[in-house]
Design a protein that fits this description.
Elements: H1 29-37, E1 45-47, E2 49-50, H2 62-72, E3 79-82, H3 94-107, E4 113-117, H4 123-135, E5 140-144, H5 155-168, E6 173-177, H6 179-182, H7 188-195, E7 200-205, H8 210-220, E8 225-228, H9 234-239, E9 244-246, H10 254-266, H11 269-289, H12 291-301, H13 318-330
Parallel strand pairs: 1-9, 2-3, 3-4, 4-5, 5-6, 6-7, 7-8, 8-9
Length: 336
């Protein structure tokens, strides 16, 4: 159940962004926007795109959401992405999204980043949701590519879409490219052009195209930060200049992924490589092989709350559960 309105921990509806001082009572959003755009945010490290927990009746389970967030904050994770693809965002109503951000805003501490997934098909709706997420404490917004009218989503349309959002957003924007789900693949040219905007600070690249990632890093300058969109290629991404990753696997293997990043920084490439190879099958199990149901089942097995998926997604069957358990044990995520 959602936390009650009387709970003293619940944020006020107009809670300001944590990285900036509060607005004066009637201060226009444009003033706050300028402040945010001149305040850099480091995206270095590992972030889970957290699953949205549901109870047995299919309602958002805010108590378990809060408990999961508290547990993740005791790990080396830098923060959380709330309502990314693994959050089943496309299956949620707008008011559910807002309530989820309210809970996240009250639980995520000031030493962790709160990144809200605000992307919608319409530019205007994305702007509105981004502003609401900012008022609920989000430090940055991750915006997936619009894709329903994919034949019309050319370079000009995408640049216009993201530029409009960035101009009106009170918090920094992170581009989100996930062609396996959207059928849209942001080109290096489009990304590099968007990277010039001072309020577009990074990219979550889920295509696995490390060559393109390297081109973006080399052409975008130091102020634009690239994140691996999957734990399956975190080390290759780091090797060409990515600063970290937004990865489903981070929800269940935060220590191993964070250790890989630290090994890379220290130059211990052998250990980093061994970790990367050990986690490949587990990463596939909670993404492409078993999907969100696999990720939630893995959370249940490590003592957190995964719970059911929302239809039309389906839970794992018994054979899939058995296969998942074996993979998690071989990866060292579950004890043998």
């Amino acid at each position: 159940m959602p936390l009650s309105a009387a709970d003293p921990r619940r944020p006020e509806p107009d809670k300001p962004n944590k990285l900036n001082k509060p607005n004066e009572p009637n201060e226009p959003l444009t003033v706050q926007r300028i402040r945010v755009m001149t305040k850099p945010i480091s995206l270095s490290g590992c972030f889970p795109p957290i699953p949205t927990p549901f109870d047995a009746r299919g309602r958002v389970d805010h108590d378990h959401l809060a408990l999961n967030l508290e547990k993740w904050q005791k790990t080396p994770l830098r923060g959380s992405v709330v309502l990314g693809s693994n959050g089943e965002a496309v299956l949620l109503k707008t008011d559910e999204k807002i309530e989820i951000w309210k809970t996240a805003g009250q639980i995520i501490g000031s030493d962790h980043l709160f990144i809200a997934g605000t992307g919608c098909e319409a530019t205007g709706e994305t702007v509105e949701l981004t502003e609401k997420a900012a008022r609920l404490g989000a430090h940055a917004a991750m915006v997936v590519t619009p894709h329903y009218y994919k034949a019309r989503m050319d370079h000009h349309a995408l640049v216009t879409h993201y530029t409009t959002i960035a101009e009106q957003s009170p918090i920094p924007i992170i581009l989100y490219n996930v062609p396996a789900s959207t059928g849209i693949d942001l080109s290096a040219e489009t990304i590099v052009e968007l990277a010039r905007h001072p309020n577009i600070i990074g990219l979550k690249e889920s295509s696995g195209n490390v060559v393109k990632m390297g081109e973006v890093v080399s052409r975008s300058g130091d102020g634009f930060q690239v994140l691996a969109g999957s734990g399956s290629f975190l080390l290759p991404a780091l090797s060409i200049g990515a600063v970290g990753g937004v990865m489903a696997l981070a929800a269940v293997a935060p220590h191993a992924l964070a250790e890989m990043v630290e090994d890379f920084k220290r130059g211990d490439m052998r250990h980093a490589r061994d970790t990367q190879l050990r986690l490949i099958a587990a990463n596939a199990a909670v993404t492409s092989r078993f999907g969100i149901a696999g990720l939630k089942a893995a959370l249940d097995r490590i003592g957190m709350y995964g719970g059911p998926v929302r239809p039309p997604l389906r839970p794992l069957d018994k054979d899939q559960e058995t296969a998942l358990d074996k993979i998690l044990r071989e990866a060292g995520i579950l004890e043998q």
